[in-house]
């Protein structure tokens, strides 16, 4: 299987953190909160979630500079499990495209 693609819009709920890995790759991490109404089984329902996003590489430098808490963005990328230091697993969206909406 090769399909692993997610497109989601939302609001930044944590200020972006910028860092450079020991290998020299630039990373930006932020949390996105999504809220919408979706149709399921013919009925409207509220959908909400929060997800961590990582954007890696210099190609995102210009796109990420205006990001701040409260910004609305659309992110397209793939999901990957990340383990925290205490062993918890969580899904992280690895951005391949970021569009600033506001």
Short key terms for the protein model shown above:
102 residues, mainly beta, OB fold (Dihydrolipoamide Acetyltransferase, E2P), five-stranded mixed β-barrel, 1 helix, globular
Write the layout of secondary structure elements.
Blueprint: E1 6-12, E2 17-20, E3 26-40, E4 43-56, H1 61-64, E5 72-83, E6 89-100
Parallel strand pairs: 4-6
Antiparallel strand pairs: 1-3, 1-5, 2-3, 3-4, 5-6
Describe, in short, the structure shown:
The protein is mainly beta. It has one helix spanning 61-64, and strands spanning 6-12, 17-20, 26-40, 43-56, 72-83, 89-100.
How would you characterize the overall build of this protein?
With 102 residues, this protein is mainly β. The protein has a single domain (6-100), classed as Beta Barrel (OB fold (Dihydrolipoamide Acetyltransferase, E2P)). It is 4% helix and 63% strand. The protein has one helix spanning 61-64; strands spanning 6-12, 17-20, 26-40, 43-56, 72-83, 89-100. The chain has a 5-stranded mixed beta barrel. The longest helix is centred in the middle third of the chain and has 4 residues, at 61-64. The radius of gyration is 15 Å and the shape is globular. The protein starts with 5 loop residues before the first strand and ends with a strand.
